[in-house]
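Reviewers asked in the last cycle whether our approach scales beyond single polypeptides. To address this, we selected a multi-component target totalling 392 residues and predicted its structure end to end. The input consisted of the following lines:
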Amino acid sequence: MKGEHLPGADHVARLCPFAKLNEDSGEPGAAAFMLRTGEEYLSVNWLEYLGKPSRGEAIKELRLLYGKKFRVGAKAKIAVLNVGDFTSYVQSEVATALAVLHEPLEPNGGVADPSHSGVYNLPAEGDPFAIVVGKLLATKVLEAVSAK
Amino acid sequence: MDGGVSGSLWTRQRVASSVDRWRLASDLEPSHDPEFGWGSTLTAASIATETREKAHLECLWLPITLLAPMEAKVTSAFALRDDDPASFDQPAALTQASNTNTRDWRTHFSIDAIRRDARIAFRERLADCLEALQSAIREDDPAGAGVSPESIENLHAFLRRHSRLKRPSLTVTPAGDLLAEWKAGPDKDFSVHFLPTGMARFVVFAPDPAGGPKPVRIWGISSVVSLMRTVRPHGIHRWAMNEG
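The resulting structure, written as structure tokens, was:
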């Protein structure tokens, strides 16, 4: 349901282009979790909503979806985070209450994205604090797998 | 005449704004600068002032290694006659292509300037990284803005000023600017977002001076020139710089 808070036990995935991956580790860096100018929330996908038997199956479905929606680079990755883990961590470290809400996207002439969700209350693009929160989120990535 | 580019690199190179015409790469002769060697300048400044409407383009110092690919770009995007004023009435698509290519050229020149800068010990690896980032962004979004050349020039100016700094890890922000990171642990983390304006947003994670378990986190904005002085009290120089 649109606007529903995702349960803390559930997981979200974020598409991270190569240019937002740490050069040495290959893991997503702070830039992967920063908003674009004018963006209200950070786009993610709710893995459990996809109803697959395993996380691997859910990620397979996301690869197909991203392939339809975006030009996915050969080195891009999908980062997986636990909702309760990263929201409580950011709250405890920098007293910022992030909210993760279901934001399903209708096809509107394109591709439907029913598991689409948003991370709200991130600092705006021009705020140096956005780098701090991005760094904290990057440390909470459970796994980062190929997006292709 | 520096078109908003900070630092001395671009302004010290020759710009002939009076040359009010298009030039094809094949028309140009490489030149040599005593400090920078064989080089090139594609000046954003040359798309300024009275020639802005004409998307005036000057290529004065083409590196030999870049001549071939650039010539191909010039031919496709700027196949206009030097002396034909009507040729400046470009279709919108061509204008957009011109802008993208102009920016890409400047990005390549900015990276090339780093690659040739003997003051930066890790110049080759840094330039390779920047090329890889630009290439990846182009793969994801061929019509997008790519890595900001002004941001690269700011990073370059910063590294020239602080040549003992270790090589940073680079990523690109959603706006196309560079985010450089020096990290030696959870409480030894220095990140700089190099803006196109000569300013930088910075973040420092440092050990708590009172010995607390959590790092102190500081963030702010500073000119690139004042940045290291601004963060020095937090001990960045002790772990982000090489001995010497």
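Chain A has one domain: 11-146. We regard this as preliminary and will revisit it once experimental data from Aim 1 are available.
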